[in-house]
Amino acid sequence: MIRMNAExxxxxxxxLVPAVIQDSSGGEVLMVGFMNRDALTRTLQxxxxxxxxxxxxxxxxxxxxxxxxxxxVSALTDCDRDTLLLRVEVEGEGLVCHRxxxxxxxxxxxxxxxxxxxxxxKEETR
Length: 126
Hints:
This protein is of the alpha+beta class and 126 residues long. The chain has helices at residues 4-7, 37-46, 111-124; strands spanning 17-23, 29-35, 50-53, 58-61, 70-77, 84-90. It has a single domain (4-124), classed as Ubiquitin-like (UB roll) (Roll). The chain is globular, with a radius of gyration of 16 Å.
């Protein structure tokens, strides 16, 4: 089995690591979830993405009710070993988001919101 579980830094975020989910064929970012050690272990053992739900305090495998499962093709960590990138193949209808879209990243930010963030960042660096 892959030893990735032991290689990740779960301490930075109180036992969790963010997991970025990316389509393996087109590179589209589909969603972001959180994993604890148990979620990562199940993901690596079973080959399907399992997250830790922070609101329900339990593991859940993506697609367990919808059928839109995420089969892991590869797993990578970032340079700090505190974030995970999972490249996946989507099974089922391909609707990953609970809102019925392929990706959870469909909500554009207004130009005003982007400008506000940029202005705040400039002021912080002064």
